[in-house]
Amino acid sequence: MIVDGGFPHSRGSHAIPGRGEEMIRRVLLIAIMLFASVSVYARSYMGVGVHLGAQHDVGTISKDPSVKIDPQNNAIVGFALKLNLGGFFIRSGVDTTFLINQGEVLENTDEIEYNRIHYTAIPSFLGLSFPIHNIGELYMGGGVAYFMGSGKIKSTAFGKEDIETTAFGYGILMGIQLNIFSSLHLYMEWEYFDARSEPITQTQSTYDWDNFSVDFSGHRVFLGIMYHII
Amino acid sequence: MKEKAIILILLFLAVCIAASRARAAPVDYAVGIYGGFTPSFGGDLHSYNQEKYFHSNSGIDGMNRARDGMSTSVIERLIGATAGIELKGIFLDYYFVRFAFNYTRSIYGGSGKTVFTPDGTNYYRLSCTYSLSMYDVPFTVGLSIPFWKDMKVSLSGGVAYAYVMYENQFKSSETTPPFERKGVFKGWGLPLVIIAEGEYFISPKLSLNAALSYYNGTTEVIKDDKDTDISGPDLNNDGSTPDAAVDFSRIDLTGYRFTLGISIYIESI
After folding, report:
1. Distance (Å, rounded) from C-alpha B221 to C-alpha B140?
2. Which of A8, A14, A80, B8 is deepest in the core (most CB within 10 A)?
3. A42 chain-B contacts, CB cut-off 8 A
4. pTM, whole model, 2 decimals?
């Protein structure tokens, strides 16, 4: 069953729309307002960065202990916007994934044979930053993210199927930043997110319902360079 | 629970006293309060009845289904709000022991409507509700690295005593007769704890801090505390009722927490 065009799933409109999208719109609006009003707090700056990263076990098919799997791995490219206001920071951006290897069930499969999931995520974090004089800083925060995913799965019962969905999730960020030059900084970040889509397609032949959800949860690591604009 | 908490308090005091007496060095103390959140609180909250009668072998995640012509809503994993108070004993400037008391409860997620079938032919909507609350008392030891007088970065590890209460409820008005079942699971576990923390001193004795905690562990398998005398439909089409009278669950204590707080440093006694 193919989802054609935009989001929600192929079996009609019995999904509940709006709540996640409304919340992410509010978060982005607040983030934009704060980015637009850089003030004269001590150690405040606005930075733009680009980074590379990776995520292991995309789709988390490894959570089923009854199957032997080769998990999917994705590379991630993205850019970051970071605003420091005194000891607080706001970090947003956009991340896009590229497939390194698809996730495959090697033995004992009765539903999913493989999955290839690609997504674009828009995260927003808020937290505390701890500057270390002229060396750099450590920062930790919590936040939300909006995921737009697509890809392909193959189920034993129904064969190959294109999928497309969205999800809203919550997560945690920790990062360190090292000053290279006065306005140029190296940064490394770890993120954890918990996010799942609504059920979008059927993989079980025994029951007549959509049971498969795309799981965007997991750990992501980035390495990047940031330029301080202000 | 009280006995285990008292043991951890005495252990904390014993370490502080021994450290200060052994090297004749003062022990500084800090008291802090904090609050934050924990995503995926309790994990997938799987239980026996969800697998046997509602065809989910992955708790909340497997319970989420949709079907043409039936109005359903996504059951999301729980988000927990957490708050706590901590006491630290810092000795020799770099070493510390930390004792805290935390309360966490679910504030978002855990409710929705899904679909189930007892016989593979007739499909019914099922309302599901999950909630979780936890008291935990972590005891950790660690290292603290001060950077001039502005900030500290700390890393500590240890163990926590965690007492949890998990409730789930499943009901359907569409079955004949209508079905409703509530489960209550109370138990405890000893998860391992790792905490990474950054502190920024806004004055010599007052700091703002952010901490990232990781808990790893589970409870033992807990039997449903609520003796439910139910009547209801044949949920698994095996010809016998009542079904789902007893439930079992192992509560997952593994997860991350992010907290923000303030600490007050007290001069050595």
Report:
1. 26
2. A80
3. none
4. 0.84
The full set of domains in chain B, from first to last, is: 2-266 (2.40.160.20)
pLDDT in tens, A68-83: 889 999 999 999 999 9
Q: Which DSSP state fits A28?
A: H
Judge: A64–B58 Cβ closer than 8 Å, yes or no: yes
For residue A116, what are the CA distances in angstroms to A58, A119, A146, B16, B98? 8, 10, 19, 54, 44
Nearest to A210 among B67, B77, B209 (CB): B67
The two three-digit tokens of residue B151, written as one number: 């900030």
Sequence letter at residue A166: T
A198 close to B (CB below 8 A): yes
H-type alpha helices, chain B: 2-22, 48-52, 59-63
Of B74, B198, B208, the CB nearest to A138: B198
Residues from chain A that touch B61, judged by Cβ atoms under 8 A, are: 63, 196, 213, 215
Q: How far apart are CA A2 and CA A213, in angstroms?
A: 14
Check CB contact under 8 Å for B74 and A63.
no
Q: Is A175 on the interface with B (CB under 8 A)?
A: no
- Any idea which of A92-96, A174-178, B203-207, B210-214 has the lowest mean pLDDT? B203-207
| Exposed / middle / buried, residue B237 (Cβ in 10 Å: 0-12, 13-18, 19+) | middle
Q: Among all residues of chain B, which has the CA nearest to that of A66?
A: B57
Of the candidates A39, A128, A52, A50, the residue with the CA atom closest to the CA atom of residue A90: A128
Cβ-based neighbour number of residue B22 at 10 Å:
9
| Complex confidence, ipTM | 0.85
Q: For chain A, which domains are there?
A: 19-228 (2.40.160.20)
Q: A132 CB near a chain B CB, below 8 Å?
A: yes
Q: Does residue B262 sit at the A interface (CB-CB below 8 Å)?
A: no
End-to-end, the C-alpha distance of chain B in Å comes to: 30
